[in-house]
Amino acid sequence: MINDLMPVxxxxxxxxxxxxxxxxxxxxxWLDGYIKREEIEAYRQASMMAxxxxxxxxSKKRPKPxxxxxxxxxxxxxxxxxxxxxxxxxxxxxxxxxxxxAMGGKDLRKKGGESI
Length: 116
Prior knowledge:
With 116 residues, this protein is mainly alpha-helical. The protein has one domain (2-104). It has five helices and no strands. It has helices at 2-11, 16-21, 24-55, 73-80, 89-102. It is flat and about 75 Å long.
């Protein structure tokens, strides 16, 4: 895990020895703070892009003004993700029956433990 954080830590100005001297709790707090600062900076940049886009926006072609969210890449990716269908209890039971059958198991709900 620490090796995965080294590129981020060095980008943020931490040395390897500083990272290695941190406890996991300190490292997590530092990482949370770093991520929050990056999000704030991304929003600041998106706000500037929205401002510039709105200055040059043709209000006849696009009556709705741009918002900073229009320029945040992660928001666009989240909107494109299809929502997963919630698995019903019947779906779960069917999946378990198929798994038991594939492993050669027996259905203990039936008398004599008949094969599924």
